[in-house]
Amino acid sequence: MDANASFEDLSDLLEKCKMTHDEYQESVKALTSGMVVMMKREPKDCWVNGYNPDLLRAWNANMDIQFILDEFSCIMYMMSYVAKPEHEMTEFLNSGIRDVKKSNVNKQDEMKQIMQAYAKHREVSAQESVARVEVDRLECVAQRQAIHPDEHEEQDQIPDYEVHALYSGAIDAPKLSPDFVRSMYRSLNETQASVFYTVREWCLKRVWGHNPEPLFYFISGGAGCGKSHVIKCVYQEATKILRQLPRFRDEADMSQPAVLLTAFTGTAAFNISGKTLHSVLKLPRNLRPHYQGLGNALDEVRAALSNAEILIIDEISIVSKELFAYVHWRFQQIKGNRKPFGGMSVLAVGDFYQLPPVGKAKQLCICEGDVLDLWKDFQMVNLTEIMRQKDDRAFAQLLNRIRTKKKTDPLSVDDAALLTQAVAEIKDCPPDVLHIFAMNKEVDAHNAATVTALRLQVVNIPAEDYRKDPRTGGMVILTDLKGNSRDLPDNIQAAQGAGVMVTRNLDTEDGIVNGTFGTIANIVPIAGCGLTTVKLIGLQLDNPMAGQKFRRKIAGATDDLVYIERFEEQMSKRVVRRQFPMKLAFGCTAHKVQGMTMKSAVVCLKRVFESGMAYVALSRTTSLEGLRIIDFEEKKIYADPNVTTAMENMSHASFRSTRPLLHFVKSAEHAAPTLTVVHHNAEGLPPHMEDLKSHHELGLANVLCVTETHLSGSFVSPKFQLEGYDMFAHNRHVSYTNRVDMATKDGGGVAVYCRSSLQAEARRYFHDVTDLEFSVVKVESPVRALIAAVYRPPNLGLDTFLPNMQSLLDSLETMDCQPVVVCGDFNEDLLSKGKKAIRELFHSRGYSQLVSAATTEKQTLIDYIYISRPELCLQSGVLQTYHSYHVPVYCILTLSAVGASASFVIE
Ligand SMILES: Nc1ncnc2c1ncn2[C@@H]1O[C@H](COP(=O)(O)OP(=O)(O)OP(=O)(O)O)[C@@H](O)[C@H]1O
Questions:
Q1: What is the Å distance from ligand 1's center to 227 Cα?
Q2: Ligand 1 pocket check for 314: Cβ under 6 Å
Q3: What pLDDT sits at residue 667?
Q4: I want to staple 383 with a disulfide (CB 3.0 to 4.6 A). Which of 10, 225, 240, 578 is the partner?
Q5: pTM, two decimal places
Q6: What is the distance of C-alpha 759 from the center of its chain?
Q7: Whose CA is nearest to atom 25 of ligand 1?
Q8: Which cofactor does it need (predicted)?
């Protein structure tokens, strides 16, 4: 074709540009390297400075240019300029547009220019293209072989790397409603709450400038013990508190995270609304023995993470030692600090009895002499209460036993009998229930068999491979390229109604990750070409919360499917593959279900080949009823004995200081009778009654004094009663006789909850005591004490308060009951300087104050316990809560004087 030919009109031009199939085959690959397409109607489908894959496919089908123009009637320009590098091409295009605008030439002229350029290109490139493409293909095949010499056949592509996500400094906290967060906090069991409060207290200390040592906790426990649940809570609360650090206030950039919530795999990261470790820390895909620094990216990552204080890593059992060391070095580099993990606190969360890292790497917990052992600084917290199977206790307990079962140990008769109830034949298992296997081969066979059995209409979708031409910067189509198991597949199968799994992390935050399950509900072919080439696959995801950003209305207004496009991935330095990141998933491997909770599953134990695998697979369903086991063999259920030894040698965290009452009750060090008195300014019972009820330590109080009840009227609704307690409430409006201004204000009020099992009575009438918010209870047994709860509002002057308080003490002291304990919120900060009139009053009458730590988030000490006989106090201090500005204060009284009093007297 003559590039300088003059064309009479467009149809003549098109006629001359028509190609035969053979002609096309020779030239199209070269053409693709430089075609620039702009479309009027669907600019998003157009790859300026690249190539348009839809158009190429149409060409592939031996369509002529006339057809393409008809099909894409929106085309304004189609230019090819193959022999030019990219920047020249851009310039060519821009100048073309400028010229067109300037000269106001009509569309036919534009098309003429385009076709002339194309004709010129064809002449130049036609002779070269065939030979070059074949050389490219062979080169790529060779490169692929060199990159992955030995693939581990049986394991899935773990780890998952979110290498495609653009790095954004903002690693925002998931936005959960306050009510939802509160309900999560309330649900925490005792050990979960101990972790929660310990981290919370640490954060407060950081905010108060106490510089506490970093925390290193390993939060362990069997499958479904709520490890992920607790870290979600920790993340929310710690983020909230640490954002009060002065540097957050000063820099006012709330998008910078104080807490990094991460996991190794995309699925685990989405499960906790976190990010993958690799994406947060920009870790390299292949960890080489020597640490590779961040290079040019250091400033960017440092800026994003400079305010991070706590790192949380979920599913730690699949983190290798090498990766853990990399994380440590990365933080040292980012923080410019030689301390472990650059001075960060680390919460490593997971269960080493579940699946280990891929390949031959040893578990992190297992000590090896020559490897950097960062693990030794960690203290273990063991969650033991199974939450996933909480409604099927027998199954939960069985799972706990098989978690640590040795290979040589037989199952107990009862356990074997229980598991046998779930044993089934594969033919009896419903095909729509997820089948879990050990090996990919089994998964593939099961998928194929199910497709056949369900008579699904399968569409084969081949991958599209391209190579970047180093000379022109353009793209060249490659054919017959065989990927290996790490690549997107050479070919995938899709069918309406087929169960599938996403195989790449497309958007971790949105839950479209490697391991997201769904069912194909729509297969969208390439628009209008009549070809079988697929443009989009619409999925109904198992998790309805996932994929919000991927939803489109392709099949009409009611369409709510998640549409997945082809994913582009680098196969080697210059070769790119485009394929749907998806595979059939009527079945999957055990690796893929770690961390998941499901109602039903079919587990095949036939080819289980490593420790923990059977346990992971068997522990997914919420009940035994939902589980079917095929090829049951009890010797396939076994734990790694090295893990057992490592666990036994690990030091355990103590929550003695954060959870003193729980510790006291559990340690049972004190055999004699005791009386536990707690005071708590609840900042209102109506909003916080549920928080009080779910608090494990408040529930240990024999006498619970609450100030600021915010109750009104004379009648107390049953919803403010606590089970097992008698309530003696004294609301604000009945407390003031001479101060109408105070009596009519909202808020205030006092209540004492007294365990019904105590021998105790309320004392209601005190003649000379007016204008004071208080309530008194006299306990006779098991430990005698007279207990008064008092609230002094901040706006009640000392001139009113002191004489009335004095009158109350006079009355209490005449009642012949020792010790007298007066607790409450007095709004006089004992940690600040200056005269303390209330303390002087109590001291003048021989009372001691037992609380030494700050009792509010602003680090003031305004909640006290005064006691007339401090030697009868065994222990005292503060407790932790999340729902009030005030922490509760407590004391444990005993019958006879404690030798060296544990009480603390603030002078
Ligand atoms: N305190 C709790 N109250 C109510 N539900 C809970 C609680 N803790 C966990 N759960 C629920 O129990 C199930 C299992 O919890 P989670 O996923 O946190 O366990 P896990 O220990 O991380 O499990 P795995 O080891 O399998 O990853 C989830 O559905 C979770 O919401």
A1: 6
A2: no
A3: 82
A4: 225
A5: 0.77
A6: 49
A7: 223
A8: Mg(2+)
